[in-house]
TrEMBL record:
<protein>
    <recommendedName>
        <fullName>Torsin family 2 member A</fullName>
    </recommendedName>
</protein>
<dbReference type="GO" id="GO:0005524">
    <property type="term" value="F:ATP binding"/>
</dbReference>
<dbReference type="GO" id="GO:0005635">
    <property type="term" value="C:nuclear envelope"/>
</dbReference>
<feature type="signal peptide">
    <location>
        <begin position="1"/>
        <end position="30"/>
    </location>
</feature>
<keyword id="KW-0325">Glycoprotein</keyword>
<dbReference type="InterPro" id="IPR010448">
    <property type="entry name" value="Torsin"/>
</dbReference>
<dbReference type="GO" id="GO:0016887">
    <property type="term" value="F:ATP hydrolysis activity"/>
</dbReference>
<dbReference type="InterPro" id="IPR049337">
    <property type="entry name" value="TOR1A_C"/>
</dbReference>
<dbReference type="Pfam" id="PF06309">
    <property type="entry name" value="Torsin"/>
</dbReference>
<keyword id="KW-0547">Nucleotide-binding</keyword>
<comment type="similarity">
    <text>Belongs to the ClpA/ClpB family. Torsin subfamily.</text>
</comment>
<dbReference type="InterPro" id="IPR027417">
    <property type="entry name" value="P-loop_NTPase"/>
</dbReference>
<dbReference type="InterPro" id="IPR001270">
    <property type="entry name" value="ClpA/B"/>
</dbReference>
<keyword id="KW-0256">Endoplasmic reticulum</keyword>
<feature type="domain" description="AAA+ ATPase">
    <location>
        <begin position="91"/>
        <end position="229"/>
    </location>
</feature>
<keyword id="KW-0067">ATP-binding</keyword>
<dbReference type="Pfam" id="PF21376">
    <property type="entry name" value="TOR1A_C"/>
</dbReference>
Length: 323
């Protein structure tokens, strides 16, 4: 939902429905609305809407730029390969990303959008931008249901990203749950080829605790498996009444296919983030700059200072101070 975000901040339903019938700006300029394929996409369950997944490119970029997250990389690639290779999936692919700030959750969603969807069919929702007022909950629910249904009618190959699930109003996700199951259609719309990704900090304490315990046992953090963390993440979400998943039916109906844990980053990971960022800016990484930026971060726990408190989140803004 990177375009037209204001639609959820108080737009009347008829106007929203009108927006759903209009093409996105890029399509208007290209005249794509009038191509026969555009009409076919809105009527057929088989239309791929220019869905051209580059899983090889995604795997390569994840290996190079998603720092310190081998488990997340493995889980996401496995889930995507199985889903994309199935011409008639039984349900949408539903992923839930969990971990501390700055560990790569949002960055990974940007890579998914880049390598899977070379079209406007990527929709990102933010609580502060799209659902800011608690007293507008029913309007937001109606708008969100219509937005998802309208865009899936236009293209069943769509990506829906929900940021900051911790700040999402409980109750809003009630209208999303019906789109995540294994039924053939919802509200007359085929939706089984869609991908939904939820991003949350909930569960970070459990993930960080396990990583710290492994370090203290002199074991590698990369030994952590999905099985080690999934139950504790699910428990953390289930017990948090302020979380967007609260009593939505998504957890109760087991609609999430993969809980993806993002591990806390150590100082050498932060240094790698600095190197990657400088290279991306066309700068030559120098040891003095890399070490200076990494040393400027705070690390926890207070005694051992093992993991970055903010991951790699502010690397870009810190680099100029050390050049």
């Amino acid at each position: 939902m990177e375009r037209g975000g204001g639609a959820f901040a108080g737009t009347r339903l008829p106007f929203l429905l009108l927006l759903l019938l209009l093409p996105l700006p890029g399509l208007m300029l290209s005249g794509a609305l009038w191509r026969p394929s555009a009409w076919h996409c809105s009527l057929s369950a088989t239309c791929e809407c220019e869905f051209l997944p580059d899983l090889t490119g995604l795997e390569c970029e994840l290996a190079l730029s998603l720092v310190g997250q081998p488990l997340a990389r493995q889980l996401v690639l496995q889930g995507l390969k199985s889903f994309v290779q199935d011409p008639e999936p039984a349900k949408p692919l539903v992923l839930s990303f969990h971990g501390s700030t700055g560990t790569g959750k949002t960055y990974l969603t940007s890579l998914l959008a880049r390598h899977l969807f070379r079209t406007p069919y990527v929709h990102r929702f933010s609580p502060l931008i799209h659902f800011p007022h608690a007293d507008h909950l029913q309007q937001y629910k109606d708008d969100l249901r219509n937005w998802i249904q309208g865009n899936l009618t236009r293209c069943s190959r769509s990506l829906f990203l929900f940021d900051e699930m911790d700040d999402l109003q409980p109750g809003l996700m009630d209208v999303v749950a019906p789109f995540l199951g294994s039924s053939w259609v919802v509200f007359g719309t085929n939706y089984r080829k869609a991908i939904f990704v939820f991003i949350s900090n909930t569960g970070a304490d459990q993930i960080n605790r396990m990583a710290l315990e492994l370090w203290r046992d002199r074991r590698d953090r990369e030994e952590i498996s999905r099985r080690d963390l999934e139950a504790s993440i699910l428990e953390a979400i289930s017990k948090d009444p302020q979380n967007g998943f609260w009593r939505s039916g998504i957890l109760e109906q087991n609609l999430i296919d993969i809980f993806v844990p993002f591990l806390p980053l150590r100082q050498h990971h932060v240094k790698q983030c600095v190197v990657n960022e400088m290279a991306g800016q066309g700068l030559t990484p120098s040891p003095d700059v890399v070490d200076g930026v990494a040393d400027s971060f705070s690390y926890f726990p207070e005694e051992e200072k093992i993991f970055s408190s903010t991951g790699c989140k502010t690397v870009s803004s810190r680099i100029p101070f050390f050049l």
